[in-house]
Amino acid sequence: MSDEWDELIEYLTEETNQLTRVITKEANELLKKNVQEEVYDNYSPNIYKRTKDLQKSIKSDKVEGFTYFDDSKLDYKSKVTGENVSMYVPKFLNYGHTDKTGIDNMYHSYPAREFMEKTKIELEEKYGEGCCEIVDNI
Prior knowledge:
It comes from Clostridium brassicae. With 138 residues, this protein is mostly helical. The chain has helices at residues 2-38, 53-56, 89-95, 115-127; strands at residues 58-61, 66-69, 97-98, 109-110.
């Protein structure tokens, strides 16, 4: 009986690991697509040249099963203070941002683009509710 349980556990572990790799790969692809649609396709910059660094910074760890923005690949400086805000940019773009100055432009107030939520919804439609979650690392 123990051998059968061991075989079942081994089988289920491998199936779980395989599904984790599949979902993680798809999360990476969907997140890149949704950043394109919700951020880049929403406006064309007039003041700077678009590099698509945010999209290029999307990475995945298929073993651990997570997709993330690698802020070491980003170099965003605040136009207000000059400080490096790279680690905040994905969050600001996804959830929106207002710095309470009352100035209404993209450096002080930015609407939510919700590309993370869109990615989560698309994954859950395909793989079922609870297959993924959005984790705030800030």
